[in-house]
Amino acid sequence: MRYLTAGESHGPELTGIIDGLPAGLPLSEDAISRQLFRRQQGYGRGGRMAFEQDKAQIVSGVRFGKTMGHPVALKMINRAYHKDKDNWPVVMSSVPVKDQIEKITLPRPGHADLVGVQKFRFDDIRPVIERSSARETAMRVACCAAARELLGFFGIQIGGHIIQIGESGYASWEAVRDTADPVISEGGNALSETADKSEVRCIDSGISEQMVAEIKKRRKDGSSLGGIYEIVVTGLPAGIGTYTQWDRKLEGLLSQAVMSTQAMKGVEVGIGFEAGKRHGRNVHDEITWEDDQYGRRTNRAGGLEGGITTGQPLIIRGVMKPIPTMLKPLQTVDIVSKESRETRYERSDVCALPRALVVVENVIAPVLANAFLEKYGGDSVGEISERYPARN
Ligand SMILES: Cc1cc2nc3c(=O)[nH]c(=O)nc-3n(C[C@H](O)[C@H](O)[C@H](O)COP(=O)(O)O)c2cc1C
Ligand SMILES: C=C(O[C@@H]1CC(C(=O)O)=C[C@@H](OP(=O)(O)O)[C@H]1O)C(=O)O
After folding, report:
1. Keyword DNA damage, does the record have it (predicted)?
2. Of 371, 304, 362, 384, whose CA–CA distance to 34 is shortest?
3. The complex's ipTM?
């Protein structure tokens, strides 16, 4: 399967197309909205999340609650555009406008502003902001949530938790990384719903009081924060992915998905960089045979060897850099006058890690779904179930 997104952060709406989902998969706007809601929660988020209420509308490819094996098209409103009718429809007009629109000429270090204008030869940073913005992740999560539903149908679950924000971290994960079973926490931005499903609330951002205090401090200082998160995927069968070509190895494909997410600067699988400090006996997972199946005493490989799943939980860690837009300015250069200036502030998240974790959880789903479909795929979930009887 593959997907594409289109849309600008302050344009009227975002659009997505998912191609390659098998027929017969239950897919609802509610299931997609759940992931979208999680993506909007968490301490440290900025003002925009207070008024956007992301809900994707399914406009094709689903009939009576199930996919038809056709492309699925989604659309989602940008409330920012519709709420500020005097501004954004003019600033983002698809036809020339008479008014002189104020240009943005002060690039923010760390954002795509300067490289974007250099690349596209713009004299205004506005178009760069509009597409490089993590607003795009709203539609990306919507598309990937469909792949996540497919994985869930076959008993494959994705969870994630935050392990570090700035200087504050959970020490526990260090201790558990030599065990075969990773800690699967409640997860970031866990939801709870009333019995009649009329109300869904975010009950846990997955961050400690110390982390909250650190975010408060950095907000007060006019600065920002990133952090480190861990994603665990359970229920994966052994043997999906391959070492037969460089561009089909699962480690590589998963890393690409993680690193394609805005503000990501690093990714690890299993014990990751720690493996470089240890000697081999303390890295490789010894093989056992019990109850007619292979097992491992540890899971330092993070569920992958040779670009193929081992059947153990997949463990991925990623690092997000601090948000580039900060209240206290940094030095920059005006792209028109070339004079040295200070950056200007605009509405921004201070720490978007709880939101970004949800994005990454979802963006790895199509990678895993593709590897799964390559081995067990068919035109319908019924056909796949015949090939993959292990479901649940
Ligand atoms: C969920 C999420 C929210 C983000 N929110 C902001 C934000 O409010 N302000 C900001 O300057 N950058 C934010 N970013 C980061 C920028 O989008 C990102 O740094 C920028 O697009 C440049 O791309 P790069 O960091 O991947 O090089 C966010 C990223 C994510 C994943
Ligand atoms: C809109 C989203 O995140 C945005 C990501 C973002 C950036 O520069 O990446 C900047 C902010 O946008 P705005 O300037 O409109 O407030 C965030 O709110 C979203 O996640 O839906």
Report:
1. no
2. 362
3. 0.98
